[in-house]
Sequence to fold (684 residues):
Amino acid sequence: MHPNPPDLTGATVAELSETELLARVFPLLADARATLVGPGDDAAVVAAPDGRTVVSTDVLVEDRHFRREWSSGYDVGWRAAMQNLADVAAMGAVPTALVVALTLPGDVEVRWVEDLARGLSDAAAPWGAGVVGGDLSGGPAAVVAVTVHGSLEGRDPVLRSGARAGDLVVHAGVRGRSAAGLAALSAALPADEATEAARAGYLRPVAAVDAGVAAARAGARAMIDVSDGLVRDARRIAAASGVTLALDEPLEAFADEAELLAPVAAALGDPGLGDPGLVRAWILTGGEDHGMLATVPREVGPPEGFRVVGEVVERSEHEVLVAGEAAARGGGWDHFGGTARV
Amino acid sequence: MHPNPPDLTGATVAELSETELLARVFPLLADARATLVGPGDDAAVVAAPDGRTVVSTDVLVEDRHFRREWSSGYDVGWRAAMQNLADVAAMGAVPTALVVALTLPGDVEVRWVEDLARGLSDAAAPWGAGVVGGDLSGGPAAVVAVTVHGSLEGRDPVLRSGARAGDLVVHAGVRGRSAAGLAALSAALPADEATEAARAGYLRPVAAVDAGVAAARAGARAMIDVSDGLVRDARRIAAASGVTLALDEPLEAFADEAELLAPVAAALGDPGLGDPGLVRAWILTGGEDHGMLATVPREVGPPEGFRVVGEVVERSEHEVLVAGEAAARGGGWDHFGGTARV
Fold:
């Protein structure tokens, strides 16, 4: 349509047709290694070398998962990709390709959409995974629905249901940073090193994708992407496997994370590292960090990138124990909602 | 959570947690034949027997693609599935599995969501394709983002770019019904046989999925899902293939469809089957019917379910001709938008 694309600085998506907008976005998408047919036809074709495709979908909704005044288009694209990449990694699969269904209000700037495409691409690029297709529509709020695909490379998928009593409970990735970052943004805390690390953890989380694949290769028996909080997601493994996950004291198991987050809690008026306390609550119940929680046979030990954070025991009255106490009563969070009650 | 699920007649989604809502929806989803790991873990695993997966995503947005006062949840689920199934069929692939990212305002009734799940499942069931995963979120409008997967069964994908001069242009499925149905709903036309057929074409379109697969098996050279109008989608094949698609007079090529739609046009005050006229415009420019437009070598002839609607000729000044006239001038629709100008 435009042999010489016009300068669209400041233009909004309402000023372009879908075709024109896609023509600006496609060149920003990195090639996926597994792409056999890329964007531009009715559908894409993605390689599935071992005859199986891992698939998961996750949506980000404006004013519910992000705010456009806090998150750039790049941030939103990055997060949308990362939360999906984490889901295939939690099966032990290597990400191969993404598709994106994007709903946008007319007042969104074209530049914001281009930034979103860059964020999606950059987040997926380390695994050679790219955006192979998409759909664009107008709507009352920005909604980014990403579907991700992955390859198990011949391995069995690592399910939530494989944990066995005697396994080590292991974790890879950061804990509590996204929750602390959201709290810091909500309170408009001044920027310092700790606050910045937390904000970055919320705006551009880095999922423990490599660790997920490493755990699968090492023989992990169960795994989950920690998207809704350590306790809540530990409970999902426990329920699916019919066991109890006995987690170590989080201020010790995640002492480094706790130390990093303590100044953020202090700036919010919290006493610090105690129980109850904000830091402990962030580590136990904070969502959206996209670390990997896995169980591995004790003789295997923690796979690369993982730390030991507990052990699997025979199913007792409670599905999750934290430092020996029932999580629902002793830990300071709501049983169903995973919401901190501190 | 609920050993005996409560009666939720009239309840809205705001009254349930995501987990509770999913627990009501999962049992409504038919098993997909290709499902290796279904809903409930971090991701699903879908069989891809020939080492490739066809993938496409399409979104339906409330008040843009549907209205809740016209479309039931079942209708919306059906349409969301069908428009996606059409995309993989247009590559010549058999649908295998869908995932759904659903954004819902809090006032949507639980029953509406259950109906949507049934509509999705029923639309995909004939091909043994089921919903293998999903995500639910609140939001200001209902947004249904479906991603569909398909299997090429060892065949090459049928792209838009394969048309060659001398090919027959063939079409399977209905034409103009969705546009006529939308017009009938907008004008609140009284129900009669023709109006009902048109309304059904809008509310629950039936994509020509089997025909797409049959065309691929028969050796179709190019194919597209007709979602944006016959002329507009013919232009996409022409552009991708570097040819011109010379379409026959639509009132003759689609005489049966024209006859069916004529009473709807008459009820709207249109003279009927002439040029310009509503029926001709619906057939040429109406979207969302999800027929298949393909080109096949002349010696192959129309595959099962297809009719001949034109021929491929060497690229001339215009990408699409209708009854020998340039589509942009002679047919009564906008060159870029595919919008009827009648």
Confidence is low (pLDDT under 50) at residues 329-342 of chain A.
